[in-house]
Amino acid sequence: MSWSLELTAPARPQIENLLRNRILKGEIPPGTALSEAEMARRFSVSRQPVREAFLKLSEDGLLEIRPQRGTFVRKINKAAVMDARFVREAIEASIVRELAERSDPGLIVRLRVLVAAQEALSADRPDDFMKLDEEFHWTLADAGGRLYGWKVIEDVKLQMDRVRYLTLRSFPMDKLICQHRSIVDAIQRTSPDEAESEMRQHLRLILDDLPSIEARHPDFFTSSA
Q1: Where are the domains of the chain?
Q2: CB 89 within 8 A of CB 204
Q3: 8: which DSSP letter?
Q4: Superfamily, domain 77-222
Q5: 74-105 pLDDT, tens per residue?
Q6: Is the pLDDT assigned to residue 28 strictly greater than 90?
Q7: pTM of the prediction?
Q8: How do beta strands 221-222 and 76-77 pair?
C-alpha cells in the first residue's frame, strides 16, 4: 500500500483521497483505528492536513472521531445505503426520462462506445468496469445538463460504493451491461417511460443483493445510525 504524496500538490486533498479510496475498497476495514500521528509520519507531513482529512472523511460517514479515544473506520450503514439508492434512483430516472424525450444521436454514439468498452472487459477486471460504469452514468447526467444532480449523487453514494467493492469478485457484469444497453435503446427509441423503467430496475439491483452481501461480510455492516 503506497502512502506517497505528490510533492507539488496540496497534502490534505491527497491524504483524503488516498484514505477514502482504501476505505471504499475495503483495504482499510471497518473498526480499524487511524492515528493522526502515525498518518502524519507515513505521509511525511504535519498533523494538520491529516486532521483536516479525518474531519472531511468523518463528514462523509467513513470515519468516526471519538474524543479522547481515537478515530475509527465506520461500518457500512445499511440505512444510508438505502437512502442513497433512493436519492440516486429519483435523480437518474428523471435524467433518462428527459433524455428520451429528445433523443440525441451524438449521445447515443457516446453511450454505445461506453457499453462496447464494458463488453470488452474480461471478468477479472471488475474495478475497471466500475470506472466505466461511473462514466456511463456521468455521461447521462452531463448530456441532460444535470451535473449538479450528479454532484448530489456523488455526495451520498459512498456507502453504496463500499457495498459494490465488496461484490467485485462476483460482480454481475453481464447483467449490468445488458441493463445499460436497454437504457440506451430506450433513449434512442425516444421512449421516456421505458427509459425510466429500465433505469429504476438497474438501480434497484442492490436491493436484491444486499442481504447476501451482508451475510458474507457481517463485520462490515451496521443497521444503526
Answers
A1: 11-74, 77-222
A2: yes
A3: T
A4: GntR ligand-binding domain-like (1.20.120.530)
A5: 999 999 999 999 999 999 999 999 999 998 99
A6: yes
A7: 0.87
A8: parallel
